[in-house]
Amino acid sequence: MNLTEIERVKDISHEDFQKKYLKANKPVILENRAHEWNAYTNWSWDLFKSLVGQVDVPIYNNTRAGAKVPVNGGDGFMKFGDYLDEIRKGPSELRLFLFNIFKHAPQLKNDFTWPEDLMGGFLKFFPVLFVGGAGSIAHMHYDLDLANIFHTQFIGRKQILLFPFEESRKLYKMPLTVESAASFVHWHTKGFDTEKFPKLNEVNGYRSVLQHGDTLFMPSKYWHHMEYLDSGFAMSLRALPVTLSGKLNSVYHLSLMRGLNNLLIKTAPEWWYQKKRAMAYETAQKA
User: Where do the domains of the chain lie, and which CATH numbers do they carry?
Assistant: First the structure.
């Protein structure tokens, strides 16, 4: 496997961002983008708990979804404040994602700015938080809505692994899903399971560690695997795919593809669980 460190820039112009990263379909870390936000200095566990602590949120652990779990199916619910108390104690597998905290505390939207100087098409109704305990994992996948994403890390550090969509077959992409059949858990300390998944030897991708204030630009359809090195949280600002074909593909992923996958999970869970993994392996071997 060939991994390259994600490029970092302090500041960037609209023209350079469009040419070097958006149109080139290449990730970049913007180091200064968030440093002038109120969110950079003011957002904290205590602030979130005081504002939104009583809201019920879906919680996820590190166990990959079983045969009968629908797309994005959770592992239980907790009060947001109780969840924050739990992950602040120390290592915890518990995480949550796509949490629209701004729905409950809209004043927080005043604490950051949208990067409209770099691109357009942002889904302003849907800025979201990602929160995790130290050791929690977001397994390898790409996002169903195919958004271009600006992902800003706040408290804590996060180890990230990215791959362009062109590497999908070698990543053992399962049919009708945005998931990989391969495991990348603790890849940065234990390496990759190339004995079971030999095509991983041929994949080209990117790696980095996000620190407080780093903003990762992740282009549409990029595969990503993230592991929380510390308990922490991040915010994602999402923009629609730039092209018409990209927008139509997003609709297909969110509706037909997800619907078919969930239907098969419901009607033939064990067969489909094994079948899509076998198909991923066969496709990878032919790549």
Answer: 2-286 (2.60.120.650)
